[in-house]
Every structure is written in C-alpha cells, then in structure tokens.
Amino acid sequence: MLFSNSYLNVFCSLSKQPKANVIITHGLGESSCDYLFLIDFLVKNNFNVISYDVRGHGKSLGKRGDIKSFHIFLDDLAQLVKNVKQNSSMKIFLIGHSMGGIIVNNYVIKYKNINGAVISSAPSREVSNIWLNYPFYFFSWWQRKKLNFNSSKIAHVPLGKGYHPYRLESVSYRLLRNLLVLSMRYLNKNFSSYLTPVLLLYGIQDKIISYKNGIHLLDSIKSKDKNLKLYHETYHNLFHDIEKSKICNDIILWLNDRI
C-alpha cells in the first residue's frame, strides 16, 4: 500500500491472506511502536494493519504534543482512510486506545465511512477541571503537562523510560483541553450520529479512565451493533497488561463476525 500524507509517519504490516484492513490510533504521548504486539497478533490472524504516529507524536510532523484543534486529528485519520480505500476494496476497521479512542469516537461521528470501531480505555465525558475549562486564567498555551509512562496506574508491569524512544515527555495544556473538554462536548452533543458498529474495551481496575465511561458510551451511542467487554485484572493500558492476549482474541472474534 502507498500513502500520501506530508505530516503522518505511516507503517503498513501486510498479511499474506488479508481479510480486512485495520487502522490503529495510539494513545497520548505514545507512538505506533507501542502496538507491536497487537499489530503482530492482527497480521497473524489475516488482517492488514496500518498504524501511524498521530500528528505531533512519534516520527510524524507537527509541534510535539500540541494541537490547535482536535478536528485536525480527525481530518488526518480521514486522509489515511481515504488512502486505504484507494489501495484496497476490503472493509476498514479502526482501533483506538485512550487518546486514540477519543479520536476514533469523534471520527465515526464526523465521517461515518468505516465498517467498525474498537475503542479501549477512552473517556466519554468532559473532564471537570477548572484549569482546562478556564485555561486563560491559569496558564499559557505553551505550558506543559509532564507524562509518566512508568506510573503504576498504567499497567501491572509499567514500561520503563527506555522501552520506546519516541514517547513524549510532556504535552501542552491546549492539547489536553482539546481532548478532554472540547472533543468530549462534540461527542456528547452528537451521540445520535454514532451509528458505526463498535466494540468497547475497559479495565475494571483502570485508575486513569474509569470503566464507567464504557458503560456511558454503551448507553449513549445509537449504533444497533454495540458491545462492551470489561476485564477484571486490567489497568489502563490494555495492550500491555496481563490480559492482553485475551483482549486481542476478543478483538479478532469481533472483527471476524463483521467481515
């Protein structure tokens, strides 16, 4: 597959006998390198996988950990979907984790042109945070929020700093406001337009994004094909935690039923 996007760093992992195409959108501060286990799992089960570094992340262009509008993320993904469609007639499914889940949730509302979505550990409600709701009173846009990938809240066995060299050390408060406030308002205002088949994945022990966000999504979106799976031993990063193989198997089963 060939892709044309001057901003995004795109990776293609192709199966010898593909059944469908899967596009993976990573979480905050991560890069596509963080999803090698999931990518390999999908390819072995006969899916083409297109992974990419979100604008301002990994090897993609853009100011590190910053964005003017969350719609830019959606439009970048739309261009990627368009490129996949130009190269393949097979169905397209999206997988988004955390920030990636925010992007995918809003994408299917805005564009409605893919065959299904898998969402993991994504918030579904606006964050009640005075610093993000009234940002001009407390900080400038260029101030940064540090990220800690070694936090015990992420997974049972947190990944060390050297695990992947492309992770961000910090992100702007403008990015956080776009993701946790503005995009949440857009999502909740447009639940009636969420008609895409969706699989929701959440860890019961997630200390960053409560699994209750998954229940809220399940109750709110209007898709007739929606499923929620909860994992009792998993924290926030489902694809790096102790139930990751089970989670990947559940994704494969869900995808196979919709091809």
UniProtKB/TrEMBL annotation:
InterPro entries: AB_hydrolase_1, AB_hydrolase_fold, Hydrolase_4, MAG_DAG_Lipase. Residues 17-242 form the Serine aminopeptidase S33 domain. SUPFAM superfamilies: alpha/beta-Hydrolases. It comes from the Bacteria. This is Lysophospholipase. It comes from Candidatus Phytoplasma australasiaticum subsp. australasiaticum.
